[in-house]
Write a structure and sequence with these properties.
The protein is an alpha+beta fold. The protein has eight helices and 13 strands. The chain has one domain.
Length: about 325
Amino acid sequence: MSRSWVDAILAAGVVPASSVPEASLGRTDVEEFTGADLVEDPELRIHPLVGVRPLAPAAVAFLDGIEHWRVAGYAGVTPIVEAYVAAAVRRRGGDRRLRTVAEQTEELAITRLDRLPDAVRRALEGTEVRVVEIPAEDAGLPARALPAARVAMQAARAALERRLAERHAAAMSAEEWLVVDGVLSDSAALSAHPRTLGVVKSHGAQYFEGPELERALTLPVSHRTSVFRPRTRGARRDIHSWYLRLWPWEGKDLLYGLLRVEARAHADTIALASRVSAWLMDERAPLATPDRRWDRLLYPIHDVETYLRARTPRELLAPPPPSLPSPLPRTGS
């Protein structure tokens, strides 16, 4: 990443900052879904996977993305955030080795242009960096502006991943599958593809209530729930989905080892749900440690993240430059 645009705004009068916000925990479950309709069983049931023959695709591609950001500086009270998003597809063929077949990165400056002094705005617009603006109502206090900047960055990351996934899915052979970290339902092409899966590690949307909710969240290891169709509001596409438990949760947390799988809304998805689940259980190994989300992280997805993080520009990972004053107060002697 070139820091020329950061240098330009600092030269134009932006006050440098050393704030590196907390790392992202990844994209959350979509809250546009409210409730679900069962499509496999008359009520939510638990299906064991013991003895199920796993699906064994001839080739599989795995897609994930990352994000990094830091506050480059302040123009008055308006922060200017330096953001970096990246995504990659790594493919595994007959030799079982993962190889990168596609990747894309983007650098962003996130701020509110009409709140910047003329000199700073001209300096920023004179560079090649893409500027993403936060909503005007969030451009006052940094306590509101920074969360808005994170939302903008996550939207850019999701769009980047979607473009890469759609491009790869369109070019896949008839024997290849694509596993995406996150939802399929924000893409018409991915939602309708017969060999694309979404694996969702976070659970912000509630699809069931009462006994069915308890059944879903206390799912035993190596079991899946019935397939259901999440009810949507907004522009989300129809999909089929089910919960899958990768590791025992007892003594830990209800969400420990719990995934939600998305696939196209089709009878073939229901027929293959157990075989797909058994295959995903096999993708736990080797363990995705030391990542703190290892219990919900398929190893090939972890591999994609590791690859992307190794290629992240160093300046976004490094501590503040030594030229900045120490944050510690001077106490005298």
